[in-house]
Design brief:
With 270 residues, this protein is an alpha/beta fold. Helices cover 25% and strands 23% of the residues. Strands 1, 2, 3, 4, 5, 6, 7, 8, 9, 10 and 11 form an 11-stranded mixed sheet that branches. Strand 9, helix 3 (170-178) and strand 10 (183-185) form a beta-alpha-beta unit. The two termini are 18 Å apart. The relative contact order is 0.20.
Length: 270
C-alpha cells in the first residue's frame, strides 16, 4: 500500500513482540532512496495516537545488526509524518549494579561500530550537533511512565554500540566498563544520529538482558540468554511503550525540531 494514504505521528523501532500493541493495524510499503525498510511498516492506533512500527531486524529476524537498513527505516518513518521515535532494545550491562531485567534510559552514546552507513548526507559539508544524542522530552516521558508502571528505571548512563554480530570479549567489556560506560548494544547507532539528521526526537528504552562477558565469571553472554530474558519481560516492556506513546507531548518544545535550522541540505526532506 502506498504511504500517501497513511500517516503517523510516533514511530516505534523494536522487535516483533510489539506488533500486538497496535490496533487497527495497516501495513504500508514506503519507497525510500535507500532501498526497502526491514519489513513493511505497520501503522495503527495506540491510545488514540497514530503509530508506525518498524521491526528492526525484520519480522523473521533476518537482518543481523550490521545489515539492518537503518537509513531506509528512519527515512520511511519521516516520510509517513513521524516526528518522535521510541527505540526499545535489548542491551548488556557493564556494571553489576544493573542486572538482567533492569530498565535503563541512557543519556549518552559511544559509537564503536564500523562499516555502517551512518549519514544521509554523502555530499556537502553538513555538521549537526550531537553532543546530547537523545530527546530530553522523550527521555523524561519514558522515565516518568516507567516509574508509574512499576519499573525502577536507571536514569542516564552511556550506551556503547558495537558492530556485532558477535558479543564482546572479556577484555573489551572490561575496557568499556573502565571508561565509565554502563550499557552495551548493537543497534542504537546509527539509528540515533540518523534520527537527528531528520530532526526527529529519538528516545532509547533499554532492557538489560545480561551482564557482559568481562563483568561476571562464566561462559559469557549467549544468544539464548538474551532471548530468554527479553521474552520474560516483553509484556511489561510493551505495556510501558504503550504508556509512553500516550504520554508523549503533542507539540515539540525540545531542541530536536531545530537540529537542521540554518543548514543548506543536499536533499529535500520528506
Amino acid at each position: 500500500m502506498s504511504s500517501s494514504q497513511t500517516s503517523a505521528e510516533i514511530g516505534v523501532i523494536g522487535g516483533s513482540g510489539f506488533y500486538s500493541f497496535l490496533n487497527d493495524l495497516e501495513e504500508v510499503i514506503v519507497d525510500t532512496p535507500y532501498g526497502p525498510t526491514s519489513d513493511p511498516i505497520s501503522v495503527g492506533q495506540v491510545a488514540g495516537r497514530q503509530v508506525a512500527f518498524v521491526p528492526r531486524h525484520g519480522r523473521d529476524h533476518r537482518f543481523p545488526p550490521h545489515r539492518i537498513p537503518y537509513r531506509a527505516n528512519l527515512w520511511a518513518l519521516r516520510a509517513l509524518g513521524v516526528t518522535q521515535v521510541l527505540a526499545p532494545s535489548a542491551v548488556g550491562s557493564l556494571t553489576t549494579e544493573y542486572g538482567p531485567g533492569t530498565l535503563a534510559v541512557p543519556d549518552q552514546l559511544v559509537d564503536r561500530t564500523y562499516g555502517r552507513a551512518q549519514t544521509f548526507y554523502d555530499e556537502g559539508a553538513v555538521h549537526l550537533s550531537f553532543a546530547d544524542p537523545y530527546c530530553p522530552a522523550g527521555r523524561g516521558t519514558a522515565l516518568t511512565n516507567a516509574r508509574t508502571t512499576g519499573w525502577e528505571p536507571v536514569d542516564g548512563g552511556t550506551l556503547v554500540v558495537i558492530e556485532g554480530p558477535r558479543f564482546s570479549t572479556r577484555a573489551e567489556s572490561q575496557w568499556y566498563a573502565a571508561q565509565g560506560w554502563t550499557l552495551v548494544g548493537m543497534t542504537g547507532h546509527p539509528e540515533a544520529v540518523l534520527a537527528r539528521e531528520l530532526a526527529l526526537c529519538y528516545t532509547p528504552v533499554c532492557l538489560v538482558t545480561d551482564l557482559d562477558a568481562g563483568i561476571e565469571e562464566g561462559e559469557g553472554v549467549t544468544m539464548e540468554e538474551v532471548f530468554r530474558v527479553f521474552g520474560q519481560n516483553i509484556d511489561r516492556l510493551r505495556t510501558l511503550i504503550g504508556e509512553v506513546v500516550a504520554a508523549l507531548p503533542t507539540s515539540r518544545d525540545c531542541p530536536c525540531p531545530h537540529a537542521l535550522d540554518g543548514m543548506k541540505l543536499p536533499m529535500e526532506l520528506p
